[in-house]
Amino acid sequence: MVSVPNVKLNSGKIIPAVGLGVWKTPQNLASQIVPKALDAGYRHVDSAAIYKNEEEVSEAIASWLKKNPSVKREDIFYTSKVFDSDHGYEKTKKAIELSLEKAKSIGYIDLLLVHSPQSDYEKRHGTWMALQEAVESGKVKSIGVSNYGVKHLKELLAYPDLKIKPALNQIELHPWLTRSELVDFLQKEGIAIEAYSPLGNGKKVNDPALEPFAKKYNKTNAQILIAWSLARGFIVLPKTVTESRLLPNLESAEVKLSEEDVKKLDALDEHFVTCWDPIEYPLDSEKKEEKKD
């Protein structure tokens, strides 16, 4: 079994540093790939309401646990997210209930994230209040955000009724998109960093810049990229629906890049965004300034 490091969140909960992302994974494939990932040694699966596979992922985990009684529910870390269209206190409460209903086969959600900051202050605030209540109910163990920039995080941390800080911010990160200012802010605030699209959404996995590192460590380009995230202290979510890639991705946890090589990979940064980028979404005050202009 591959030894995968764990990260302790500010909530006190433990999250495996390598997880399986199921973005764009159809329901039937999610039902198939999740048990295979668990067989390979994964103990962390990341879904979202907008992925429309929460129920399939949860049921696949529950079914696998029944067949593998030596592994307990608390050994598996399951994440979901509240999408932008469900922002606002009442809407988010309903969205949480729906996500919990879809996860009823596994009993609770380990981590629930605000999928992005794309709404307004009142709605974002209401969403966070509903998430805090979900933690208090015990049905959600930790809460966090995704695609939040520094300004969105500062807004959240200044809520007058803030009781629970975000445990984690899930953002696109890879050597061509290092987001150094945001990463520094998160580290100073004790908020864990989770990297999605660690292979640059597949657009950078064959970049010639990776060849010297792949040769030096006798690993694939993909493994070098995943290892870079881990070397930076990030939790990382390589996505695949191909069974043959599951174990190699997980084995990236055993690749120990030198500090010098990590810095060389950092130097590739060119703010190359391969997915959506809500991190720059304007605050209400910025929208008002735009209208004045």
Supply database-style keywords:
TIM Barrel, 11 helices, alpha/beta, 10 strands, about 290 residues, 8-stranded parallel sheet, oxidoreductase
Structure explained in plain terms:
The longest helix is centred in the middle third of the chain and has 17 residues. The protein has a single domain, classed as NADP-dependent oxidoreductase domain (TIM Barrel, Alpha-Beta Barrel), CATH 3.20.20. The chain is α/β, with parallel strands linked by helices and 293 residues long. The termini are far apart. The relative contact order is 0.14. Helices cover 41% and strands 15% of the residues. Helix 1 runs parallel beside helix 2 and helix 3 crosses helix 4. Strands 3-4-5-6-7-8-9-10 form an eight-stranded parallel β-sheet. A two-stranded antiparallel ribbon has the order 1-2. It catalyses: isatin + NADPH + H(+) = 3-hydroxyindolin-2-one + NADP(+); (R)-pantolactone + NADP(+) = 2-dehydropantolactone + NADPH + H(+). This is 2-dehydropantolactone reductase. It comes from Ambrosiozyma monospora. GO terms for molecular function: 2-dehydropantolactone reductase (A-specific) activity.
